[in-house]
Amino acid sequence: MAKKFIDVMDTTFRDGFQSVFGGRVLMNDFFPAVEAAKTAGINHFEFGGGARFQSLYFYLREDAFEMMDKFREIVGPDANLQTLARGVNTVMLDTGSKELIDLHAKMFKKHGTTTIRNFDALNDVENLKYSGERISHHGLKHEVVVTMMDLPPGCQGAHGVDFYEKTLRDILDSGIPYDSICFKDASGTSNPQKVFDTIKMARGLVPEGTHLRLHTHETAGVSVSAYMAALEAGIDGIDMAAAPVSGGTSQPDILTMLHATKGMNYDLGGLEIGKILSYEKELQNCLSDYFIPPEATMVSPVIPFSPMPGGALTANTQMMRDNDILDKFPEVIAAMQEVVEKGGYGTSVTPVSQFYFQQALNNVMQGPWNAIAPGYGKMVLGYFGKTPVAPDPEIVKIASEKLKLEPTTEKALDLADADESKSLETWIKRLKEEDIEITEENIFIAAACQDKGIAFLKGEGELNVRKISEMKTNEGSSNMGNGNYTVVVDGQKFSVQVAEGDADIQVTAVNGESAATKAPAPTSGDAEEIKALLPGNVWKIISNPGDSVNEGDVIMILESMKMEIDVVAPCAGTVQTINVATNDKVVEGQLVAVIG
Asked: 465 by DSSP, 3-state: which?
């Protein structure tokens, strides 16, 4: 009897990179490994989308569309190249208008994509309808998704087999065109028995011949068991990665699964151990200079209490390293349980996982619920769709007060479509203002990545790749790359920006004014100092010295850990000094303004 063929998608170059390096891997460094994977017989790759779209513009000074084109050239015309999209968010920072959702599918088809895996973190099927229809309209295969996780202990009301059955029935009843169905667990927390029962349920519910897949991460240590349960239940495809970006926060290793299924009635993609060994050796050589965070290689028994997806975990720890607050990570993970419980049980996958993390970070750094992360607040207020269960009423009230927004039951797509700032015309106008060529690619890059997308298109993008050769080599000697560093001079801490060439170097006292140019002294004895609550960058300055402000008025906006942090006036008065400039890096406790 012939073995059952199981389709294997190699996630190395998308989810693997995201899970281990926060997506920050330069294309020319890994392309030789793509060639090796092709030689090894792999013909199904996840090659873009998700956070591997934005990260290229944010950190690598690379064009994701160019990367996708070159990837397609290497693997040839017949490979199944897959990307990841977030329903009405596609690969954008926020909900997209119908125009932008359509443009996403059109551009990804143009640049080599075969299949788009399309999910909604809230399992709100309304958010999958239009995006799925446009994916199919542009000639792409649509892989519709049910997102999974285990709830923290003591929580109930969603994320059981009955919940997934209802979601799947809603998808089938909606008429959304699809070519395959994926059950996606980004945190790797779904227990194997639930996986088995869910796949069994789905197999009995969908039309005969429907291609079913399971995606998980090793984060909680049960991924191989989950895959074995899914195989037994009748799954048709699974996702795996190659060392050194496998296991830990990433997908199970291809070799591990080949070993786990020895002697069983499954053929994993027709892959052979010897050829995969050669491929992994080439990949390890390609990535040998990349710093692998230790947390990326480990499983964590406490992740089910959070839960934090593998793809988001290292992206967040890397940002915490950059901002010198990595020591707070255990507290943030511990704080996530309450945030999940009170937020309505959206699946911990992008963007909801980031909302959870940002709110937990706020609760740790600024006190429980004293500050509401914009994404988390808008989620509990209904601006991204309907959460699986109703959020905690007290948190809804706090979010409404803090964000000055009323709760809504309108569809997320309708809200976005009514927002003029999300129209194609708005972004075409912005490109003209910046003297940037008007192409469909540039329109989408700007709309998806906003100010950082504009910076990239103007040749001003940031390069922030963690390579061992550019990091500290021995005690007392280092090769420092561009970035922000804290140094101590005569017992006083200073935040120092390091850059190449003739860049404007900033040196700022952590608890005082600019060390290079001292700000004017306050003219009033009742002056109020305003200090940064979190480390980050100055994104926008709203008020200038001499402006009159009321209590609560926004003085400036910081960008920290993918959040926009409003810096507000603590009292009515006059802005006496602004102690930072746009794009400056700031550290926690740094003086940013004075109100008199």
From this structure: coil
Residue 443 domain-assigned (yes or no)? no
Domain containing 578: what range? Answer: 494-595
pLDDT confidence of residue 344? 95
DSSP collapsed to 3 states, 7-74: EEEECHHHHHHHHHHCCCCCHHHHHHHHHHHHHCCCCEEEEEECHHHHHHHHHECCCHHHHHHHHHHH
Is 471 inside any structural domain? Answer: no
Return the DSSP state at 417.
H
Give whole-number Cα distances, 548 to 396, 480, 558, in Å: 32, 42, 20
Q: What is the DSSP letter of 305?
A: G
C-alpha dist (Å) from residue 1 to 160, 270, 449: 35, 16, 51
| Predicted pLDDT at 569 | 87
Within-domain flag for 310: no
Between 420 and 533, the higher pLDDT residue = 420
Percent of the chain with pLDDT over 70: 90
Q: What is the pLDDT of residue 106?
A: 98
- CATH number for the domain harbouring residue 526: 2.40.50.100
**Domain-ending residue, one of 268, 290, 312:** 290
Domain with 171 in it: what CATH number?
3.20.20.70
Nearest to 135, CA basis, from 181, 176, 172? 176
CA 283/CA 381 separation, integer angstroms: 44
- Predicted local confidence at residue 311, as pLDDT: 66
Domain boundary among 267, 290, 313: 290
Q: Is residue 93 scored above 90 in pLDDT? A: no
CB atoms within 10 A of CB 366: 13
